[in-house]
Specification:
- The structure holds three protein chains of three kinds.
- Chain A has twelve helices and four strands; from the N terminus they run H-H-H-E-E-E-E-H-H-H-H-H-H-H-H-H.
- Chain A is an alpha+beta fold.
- Chain A has a four-stranded antiparallel beta sheet with strand order 1-2-3-4.
- The longest helix of chain A has 37 residues.
- Chain B folds into two domains: 158 residues, Rossmann fold (3-Layer(aba) Sandwich); 66 residues, no CATH class.
- In chain B, a hairpin with a 2-residue loop joins strand 1 and strand 2.
- Chain C has a six-stranded mixed beta sheet with strand order 6-7-8-3-9-10. A four-stranded antiparallel beta sheet of chain C has the order 2-1-4-5, with helices on one face.
- Chain C has two domains: 172 residues, 3-Layer(aba) Sandwich (Rossmann fold), CATH 3.40.50.300; 75 residues, no CATH class.
- In chain C, helix 3 crosses helix 4.
- Chain C is α/β, with parallel strands linked by helices.
- The chains are: A alpha+beta, B alpha/beta, C alpha/beta.
- At the A-B interface, helix 8 and helix 9 of A face strand 5 and helix 4 of B.
């Protein structure tokens, strides 16, 4: 067995304890797969997120046929024709005369069907865009927005919490009052207010970045408070005093001695924060203030399911909600498990 | 030659006077023990000499960076996330213009002075016993080339045998590096063969001060007598 | 005379490594037995074995622990729980962690009594106050109503002693009971041990690394090194003319 080395015994017991948590490992793998698929969205999805065909509005999921009259053949899909029933509702009738073969590795995509056939694995939206493709393109936005937002608020929180706790006195007073001001305003309203300050005519990249910044802005305060609390006790530790007496500057002590000690705990908090950012982005998008169509995010995909009528006739448009649910749950389970594994308050160290 | 002067030093924590008009001075090569029970202000006094605690009134004169300290608990005085090389290197912070080779040489010299091998450089604090950790802490303090070393209960957390080894090591290092020691403890027994001068602290004041022999043999303050009795187990069976 | 506690050939191991290796000793009534040794000598493990409070990684390989005629290792978990606290008391190094910060000393001592006896509320209260004055707390009534943080270190250590003996046990296991105290308080604590031994007929197993302090109060002593017993016997004999090289070093170190 390969022997692994960790910087200290606390990290080792923490990693071991996390690995023994099956549910958390499952969720961690789930997240790895989600991110993997999101990164490969261009490859695994049969269509681009913009690729629309108005003739197939709310087309139900297509089934791939593997046999013809009981004989196994090369996989294909049947064509569909749009008709209207007596209530003027769309009905897609399977047209068995038209067969479109499944094609692999064509046009740089993993799979697709011959044109003019359309492949809707998980159905289509109002403009006949493939939901399967849009979900994975949307995953790029939704999953990265949480990470980026957290990365920024994490840095802000670490820095401000570290400085506040380390120096104490009026520095601490001022910084913590600012934190409290941010925490005082209900998050969603603060988000809406900040979003209102962003110009209307931003392109999609600019909107994306502004949403990231807004999310980071509302989340750093609570992390800063936690880090401050930890720093308050860490700065009294002898190794910090020793560094001071050796003439090491305060800012170096904060970065090299204090913040590394808080990392394992804040990693856990971070995971929980990612999930809340994914939800926050969805919230913004659902009310139409997040990522703008045609660029998909799980939030704005779900916003199509705001009205009851389309949901009744095309229930598959709720699928993005399921993905949000799974991703948020995975982040929460992993975050909780990390905290259990690394927070000494929850664990008894046998070694003295 | 005087290396440290403390003149009427006062420190208050709220309404509590932790250090109350303490004065003494140390010459190069002195070996002073400050004895007192917990809460008597001896650790606060040490921190004032280190510049870790601001002085309220009075004066402490020492060359800057000439005072270093070895802490009581070797488990918390070394950063658990750092290996020994990084820990020792930090002590060379004010000499960071040194080349990597020179720094390495200095660290190796100091490690052999405290009786540790080069192999320890890659290892982390939790891999060492209490005595070894205290040796690392001493090496770190000495790498700052101090004139005065404050030993704050530096052996109290150790086993009796290890305690003796560390005390012997400290005696040797004192010669080698021409150091001045301030040994802080609650136990007179620990310092009787170690320190030349003894100052007894009680409720923030130095109540008795003098040559070690004199204080141990004919204590003048009742508190010193009480401490002596306790430290040397006057039989009470 | 029958011994109160008889530890025979006790071996405790982590996996295949023995932390306590074939240790035997007897404690008689009203006697203080000192168990001395450096860190890693297995002295704390012996104390925990007697109380059957060993961490799960440690297993008792062989041996017996006979206390008041019963082998403690054969008792059911429930019988052992009744024995602990009622017949065997315990005192640890850190007094603050032994008490719940949310209840007064009095409440916590009464709780122990309620768990082990049928006494009425008034009787329990009377008993607790009596014990608090037995451990020579200067103001038992005040200590009774105090929360743990309101007492000084020395007083807390006495309160813990009171907690250990509130059910009139015949044996108290004390693991480094004075290491967190100043010398002057250490001596007073040791005096209390001797006083309780005489007045209450309690025996002690005193676990410590400071040979000097315990040798002054103990009647018998065993010296441990890396799990093995290197020397044992009457204190005066062991301290006066030690046979073992390690014991000699230990004694020399503190003189």
């Amino acid at each position: 067995m390969k022997k692994r080395t960790y910087p200290n015994s606390r990290t080792r017991t923490g990693v071991d304890s996390f690995r023994s948590n099956r549910l958390a490992m499952l969720c961690l793998w789930g997240l790895v797969i989600f991110y993997g698929l999101a990164i490969c969205a261009d490859f695994i999805s049969p269509y681009s997120y913009k690729d629309e065909d108005r003739n197939f509005s709310y087309c139900p999921p297509t089934t791939i046929e593997f046999g013809d009259h009981g004989k196994p053949v090369y996989p294909f899909v049947y064509g569909r024709t749009l008709t209207f029933d007596t209530m003027h509702r769309r009905v897609y009738v399977i047209d068995k005369t038209k067969k479109y073969l499944l094609r692999f590795l064509k046009n740089g995509r993993l799979f697709g069907v011959d044109v003019p056939g359309r492949l809707y694995l998980w159905g289509a939206d109002a403009r006949g865009r493939d939901l399967f493709s849009r979900i994975w393109y949307g995953a790029r936005i939704s999953l990265s927005i949480g990470l980026l937002g957290v990365a920024i608020s994490f840095m802000l929180g670490l820095l401000i919490g570290g400085i506040s706790g380390y120096f104490g006195g009026w520095v601490d007073g001022v910084l913590m009052r600012i934190c409290e001001m941010f925490m005082m305003i209900p998050g969603f309203y603060l988000m809406l207010a900040l979003r209102a300050a962003v110009p209307e005519n931003f392109n999609s990249v600019q909107v994306y970045l502004s949403v990231v910044v807004i999310l980071a802005f509302i989340g750093w305060a609570s992390l800063a408070r936690i880090i401050r609390g930890m720093t308050l006790s860490l700065r009294e530790r002898d190794f910090v005093l020793a560094a001071k007496t050796m003439g090491v500057p305060d800012i170096v002590i904060i970065f090299k001695h204090i913040l590394p000690q808080t990392i394992s705990y804040s990693m856990a908090t971070l995971m929980l924060t990612v999930s809340s950012y994914i939800l926050a982005e969805a919230g913004l998008s659902v009310v139409g203030l997040g990522i703008q169509d045609p660029v998909p995010s799980w939030g704005n995909l779900l916003s199509e399911a705001m009205e009851i009528v389309p949901v009744i006739f095309a229930p598959w448009i709720l699928l993005p909600g399921l993905f949000i649910f799974i991703a948020v749950m995975c982040f929460n389970v992993v975050g909780d498990a990390l905290r259990d594994a690394f927070d000494p308050m929850f664990r008894n160290d046998a070694a003295g | 030659m005087s290396v440290l002067q403390v003149h009427n030093a006062v420190k208050n924590f709220g309404s509590l006077r932790a250090v109350d008009h303490v004065s003494f001075s140390l010459d190069q090569g002195d070996n002073l023990a400050i004895i007192g029970e917990s809460g008597c202000g001896k650790t606060t006094l040490a921190k004032m000499m280190m510049g870790l605690v601001k002085i309220d009134k009075g004066l402490i004169k020492a060359e800057s960076f000439s005072v270093q300290m070895v802490f009581q608990d070797p488990y918390s005085s070394l950063d658990p996330l750092w290996n020994v090389r990084e820990i020792l290197k930090e002590a060379l912070w004010r000499n960071r213009s040194l080349s990597a080779g020179q720094a390495q040489e200095k660290m190796e010299q100091m490690l052999s002075a405290v009786g540790l091998s080069m192999g320890v450089l890659q290892r982390f604090p939790h891999e060492f016993s209490g005595g070894e950790r205290q040796r690392i802490a001493i090496a770190r303090a000495l790498l700052c080339s101090p004139k005065i070393l404050i030993l704050d209960e530096a052996t109290s957390a150790l086993d009796t045998l290890v305690q003796k080894q560390i005390m012997d090591l400290l005696k040797k290092l004192k010669q080698e590096f021409n150091l001045t020691y301030i040994f802080i403890s609650h136990n007179l027994r620990l310092v009787r063969n170690f320190s030349d001068k003894i100052a007894v602290m009680y409720q923030g004041k130095i109540v008795e001060e003098g040559q070690a022999k004199k204080v141990l043999q004919s204590p003048s303050h009742p508190y010193t007598r009480q401490l002596l009795q306790a430290s040397f187990y006057i039989n009470f069976k | 005379m029958d011994s109160l506690l008889s530890v025979k050939n006790l071996t405790v191991a982590v996996g295949l490594k023995a932390v306590v290796n074939d240790v035997s000793f007897d404690v008689f009534g009203a006697q203080i037995m000192a168990v001395a040794g450096g860190s890693g000598s297995g002295k704390t493990t012996i104390g925990l074995s007697i109380l059957r409070l060993l961490p799960p990684a440690l297993r008792i390989g062989q041996g017996s622990i006979i206390f008041e005629g019963k082998n403690l290792l054969d008792l059911s978990a429930e019988d052992m729980r009744l024995c602990r606290g009622a017949r065997i008391g315990m005192v640890f190094q850190e007094p603050l962690s032994a008490f719940d910060p949310l209840f007064t000393i009095g409440q916590q001592l009464e709780e122990v009594l309620a768990a082990h006896t049928q006494l009425t509320k008034q009787d329990r209260q009377r008993k607790v106050l009596e014990i608090l004055s037995d451990v020579e707390l200067p103001d038992p009534l005040r200590a009774y109503a105090s929360y743990p943080h309101q007492l000084s270190g020395g007083m807390r250590q006495r309160a813990m002693m009171a907690q250990a003996m509130v059910c009139d046990p015949s044996l108290i296991i004390a693991d480094e009971p004075t290491s967190s105290l100043d010398v002057t308080l250490q001596v007073k604590m040791m005096e209390l041990f001797v006083h309780l031994k005489k007045k209450k007929n309690i025996s002690f197993v005193l676990i410590a690394h400071d040979l000097g302090m315990i040798s002054q109060v103990a009647d018998e002593i065993i010296i441990l090194r890396e799990g093995k017993m290197v020397e044992g016997g009457k204190v005066d004999q062991v301290m006066g003319c030690p046979q073992n090289e390690y014991t000699k070093q230990l004694i020399e170190a503190f003189q």
